[in-house]
């Protein structure tokens, strides 16, 4: 009788064999793969091992079950995987520091694409967000100001035209915005933040990449 450790190792190995086979054979999304019974027979393992291996691949979005047909190949959504896994990645301060670094790298790296690809409609949206940020700062509507900051940076990342970049950054930004605030900003700090956003919107509009880089670093330097 196999121990739990042996069973876990075998299911891990089988999951990797199945994943490698899907990649090597370039099986498209929607392809009907095999039934669990066929997998057990082909790889000479128990149904329990197969179920555990398949369960892992289903959790990653690589396989899915289809009634009366068997297992179907899927293409995993990286953004969704990050969204679902994020709570498990933040159990320690070191984990949070790693996520801060990831967010910083995404923001800094994306600004070049944002400057290059921004549309007139997106630029006008940035200007509108800055105007509303100014009004909220004057009325001291801090909660709405946080929402506008998130919307501003989400829009900047959308300008990259990359679904992965924009999606991953939005998930990270929403996570950090959800954390309890530890510092209360005074009026001078708030005015500075609004000014930085206005300057960044202007730099993107002018396609002034160097100035945009300086500004985005200023806004996210606390992350590192």
UniProtKB/TrEMBL annotation:
<keyword id="KW-0804">Transcription</keyword>
<dbReference type="GO" id="GO:0003677">
    <property type="term" value="F:DNA binding"/>
</dbReference>
<dbReference type="Pfam" id="PF07729">
    <property type="entry name" value="FCD"/>
</dbReference>
<dbReference type="InterPro" id="IPR036390">
    <property type="entry name" value="WH_DNA-bd_sf"/>
</dbReference>
<keyword id="KW-0238">DNA-binding</keyword>
<protein>
    <submittedName>
        <fullName>HTH-type transcriptional regulator LutR</fullName>
    </submittedName>
</protein>
<keyword id="KW-0805">Transcription regulation</keyword>
<dbReference type="InterPro" id="IPR008920">
    <property type="entry name" value="TF_FadR/GntR_C"/>
</dbReference>
<dbReference type="GO" id="GO:0003700">
    <property type="term" value="F:DNA-binding transcription factor activity"/>
</dbReference>
<dbReference type="InterPro" id="IPR036388">
    <property type="entry name" value="WH-like_DNA-bd_sf"/>
</dbReference>
<dbReference type="InterPro" id="IPR000524">
    <property type="entry name" value="Tscrpt_reg_HTH_GntR"/>
</dbReference>
<feature type="domain" description="HTH gntR-type">
    <location>
        <begin position="8"/>
        <end position="76"/>
    </location>
</feature>
<dbReference type="InterPro" id="IPR011711">
    <property type="entry name" value="GntR_C"/>
</dbReference>
<dbReference type="Pfam" id="PF00392">
    <property type="entry name" value="GntR"/>
</dbReference>
